[in-house]
Amino acid sequence: MEQAKKGDWVQIYKVLLPPGERAPGLPPETAAAPLAMKVKGHLIEETATAGDVVSVQTITGRIVTGELIAVNPAYRIDYGCPQPELLNVGAEARRLLNEEAEVK
Amino acid sequence: MSVKTDLSYPGVMSRKNEIMKRAVGLDYDQFELGGLAFDYEMMMAQAGYSLDQVARIQAETGVGRTPLLELRNLTRLARLSAPPGKGARIFVKDEACNPGGSFKARRAAVSCYQAAKLGYRGVIAATSGNYGAAVASQAAMRGLNCIIAQELFDSRDLSQPEILEKGRACEAYGAEVVQLSVGPELFYHFLVLLEETGYFNASLYTPFGVAGIETLGFEVAEQVRALTGRDPAAVLITHAGGGNVTGTARGMIKANCRDTAVIGVSVDLSGLHMASDRDFNRKSFTTGHTGFGVPFATWPDRADVPRNAARSLRYLDRYLTVTQGEVFYMTELLAQLEGLERGPAGNTSLAAAFSVARELNRDEILVVQETEYTGAGKHPSPQLTFARSQGVVVRRGDPVDNKPGELIVIPNRPAQISARELDLNALKRSYLKKARAEKKSEPLHPVERKYLAAEINSTENWVEDYFREES
What we know:
Chain A is α+β, with helices and mostly antiparallel strands. Helix content of chain A is about 20%, strand content about 35%. Chain A has three helices and six strands. Chain A has a four-stranded antiparallel barrel with strand order 2-3-5-6. Chain A has a two-stranded antiparallel ribbon with strand order 1-4. The mean pLDDT of chain A is about 95. Chain B is globular. Chain B is about 45% helix and about 15% strand. By secondary structure, chain B is α/β, with parallel strands linked by helices. Chain B has three domains: about 10-55 and about 100-205, 3-Layer(aba) Sandwich (Rossmann fold); about 60-100 and about 210-420, Rossmann fold; about 435-470, no CATH class.
């Protein structure tokens, strides 16, 4: 990760509740993990690199501290792969409707 | 916030009531009737808004008055597998046309109006659903700051594409998105944020929020009458926390549409634990499923307000489930036969409508009362691509083979779409079981008996019999 400088849009990570301090009654696999948070904001420090504990000012003006994990984090969302199981669904339904229309 | 503030889990939870009181601007104590009971209608009348007021508030920010569309090709398709003379006309309320892309704009419109009226500088909502974008969009229009807290990533740092997209949408509307790992402590951190900021709790479950949905039910009744000259035989409503069912049903009652069956629908996620770090990313639907629907129907006051305004058992005539594969299949059919590309979660009740249509006569009307926006991440192909990456098998077949978290079956034929009935009486008994546990061994007060009968839309005798049998 490149170095972040003051004002950069960055993402931080923070453990809110470590295992053992979480809510009672959780399934074991959940209880074994910390309750963690990620927040984005503008970096307050002059410079920082990944893993540094930094402060950010969020879009609503809150100051939050945590471990720097990304600079200008991307939106990693896409349309995925076409699904073979869905590709023919429309054509099959149209065929059923056309067959019915021909019978009439 | 003071550096001395105790942010431990028990510390924050012990301040829950005072935080809530300040963050909703409403004293719920005034509605309590003693013991289990509270005056629900008084809460809705005093703390909510009238239908006309809600419609005016919503009109200010372009919410509501969405089109009602007849799905002629899907109706024809349903009739192919219906008994002779059967196959009701299916209509859909295209709620994706609301600002923010879903019916949730109706709730958010009233919550943000209320927050601005009471002088709050901002609003906070804890939601991984469409409500986040709805609140963010309405907050933007009202000039309020907005924070959305999402339960998003598991301990491997993996996230559902659908929730990631909703977070992106919130940011597009200028909101701060606080992303949390899996666990019910989303509510804990929500309280921390409310306490820190002094913002308004734009809960889904306030009287204002639920009153916001009443216009949806009212519009359905008006539009169906205008288009067909009759009342709908049934309205199908996706059931998550119960607000959609409650508000829609109340709106239809206000339109004097009393013979229309109110049918709740959830995606069947039985067997998956909602607080499990392992199960979290093995489901393809993040809302509108039984993991929310059943617990909220059978004990509404588990919500983020002292008294939940969403109380679906008061209104439900039937409660159906459909499989994830059936909903993805219907989402594809809606796009390809009706030219409407909409998000999968919003098509939950559509899948059930296709099945229920075959039970009803051809001249009867069925209304699916919502759609939601779609986009990258929030669409069948990315959601199924992600499911496969988590080891879930996707194949064509008979939906009865569907197994949540393991197997998603895309039906081979439309005739295989078949909604399954949840036993409403069993849900009512489950509600009473919780009420009984709350009472410990104390006898029911007559006020409580009357309240419980209204809660489950049953008789006081039924309630009394249950308590007698179980003691």
